[in-house]
Structures are given as C-alpha cells and as structure tokens.
Amino acid sequence: MSRDLNRLYRALAADTDERVLPTPDRVRRRADRRARQRAAVGALTVAVLVAGTAAGTRWVLAAGPDVDLAPATTTGPPSPTTALPAPTPSRTASPPARTPDAPPKTSARPPAASPTSIPDRAFFALAAANDAGTGSVFGSGPVLPALCGAKPGEEGIVTRRARYLAFKLAGTPEGHVLDGSYQHSITVYRDGRADDAMAELRRAVRDCPTQPGSDGGEGLTSTQRLLPDAGYGDESVLFELRRPTTDYEGAPGVAEVVRLVRAVRIGNVVTVLWERGWEGTSSPRSQVDKDSRRAVSAIRDWLR
Q: Which residue intervals make up region (Disordered) (predicted)?
C-alpha cells in the first residue's frame, strides 16, 4: 500500500472498537485470493459454455439422418390440413406427348399415281369351262361401237391396251361352234378423268338411239339404249345394241341380234367388255355378267 493509505488505515484502527483489524498485508492477500477465485470461476463458466455448445452441435449433426420425416400412421381422424392453392396454368399448354407406337394422324390419304403401263395380268382369264382354246390377240382398233360420231372417253388417256378373245358356254360340246367373243380393253386415265369418260359414254348412248350400218350389219340400222346396272367396280355403264339378223347373203331376217357393252370404272381405270358374238349369235347376259366380275377382280389385283 501507499504511505497515505497506511496512515489512514492506522487511524481507522485506532478509532474502531476493541476488535482487531487485520493487517494491511492480510487484507491485500485476501483481496488477491478473491480476485483469483473470481477469475477461476469465470474461466470455468466459459469452458462449460463452450463444451456445452460443442456437444449440442455434435448432437444435432449426428441426429439429423435418423429423423423420420414420414408422418406416423394413426387410427384416429386425420388432422385438418390447409390445402395449397392450385398452380396458375400457363397461357400456352404444351401439346400432349405422343407415344412412339402411335403414328401421326393424317387428314387424307394422298391420291395414288395412275399406272403408266398395263401388263398382261391386268386382263382376266376365262374360266376353264368357257375357254375355247383360241387364246387372246392383242392389237389396236375401236374399243366401242359407233355412236353417231361421238368419241366418249378419248380425252385424258395415260395408256390403253385392247385384245380380242373368243369363248364358249359351259354346256357347248367340244368342237362345236363357239358362242361369242369380246373386244376387251383397259384404259388408264389421268386423275379425275375416268369418271368424266363414264359420263361421256352415258351421254353418247342417250344421244344416239339409232345408228345406221353398225356392228357389221352394213346397210342395217341398230338401236342403242342404256340398261340398269350396278354392282361392278366403282361405277358401270351397260347398254345394248339391237339390229336385225342377216342370212348368208346379208339379207335382213325377222329375228334380232342383241349385243351387250359394259364399261366399268375402278379408280382411274376403265375396262370395256364389248360382246361381238360369233356368226350371228346374241350376247348371253349371264356369261357377260360373270366375265365382267372376273375382269374387275383382275384389275383390282393388278392395282394392289
């Protein structure tokens, strides 16, 4: 202690009662001891706080992965939950995903290109019972009888082939006179022209009720008329030609010869069966119908 402090301390001791005051050195030692105790307690408190903080941190980090975030299953009624607002839809919705197996839809099938050539297999074969054994002869020539100068179906042609073949009826004995023959043609038209050709043929027959000197009957007049027809191809036109029969010298007879002509359209293709007869015979309708169906089937098989 300083000198003034010692002096004041002795004065205080003299004024006090009989109790003995400790000496200044003892007071100083006590004060130092208390200061050291307070410092030790403070250091111990800080150490405890630091240790507790570190332990708590390790506990949180170690316990994190073990926390089960899934809600526990209870048998009681579920606690009310607040519904989240639905997300606002965007202005442009993305197109629905298409599975790889689903082919893209098309509005219409593109038109098939018209064939540019006609093979032999496009022409029908006669049934074995009707085959006369004479075969077919391909060549040029008219594909329709004369119709007062009209030329139906001669526009928009891509290609055409024609043949001549004879036939016999199933009941005709072998070696007997044949029963008829066909001028058979197949014509391929440009797209949209085949149905025009059919319309032109109908109009030509209606506009030509009579035709002088037709179908080999020179000097004789034939009559033409449309007949009801259906069930062949996409559409068909059937008409007949009638003229008087002739004898061996060409003189007209009392009876009539009837010829049948059928045109059938299959897409852009038109086939014509013009029955020409054989030595003055008339066209057997049932045979013409049967061969018309065979002709349509052959063309469809070719076009597949």
A: 70-117, 207-227
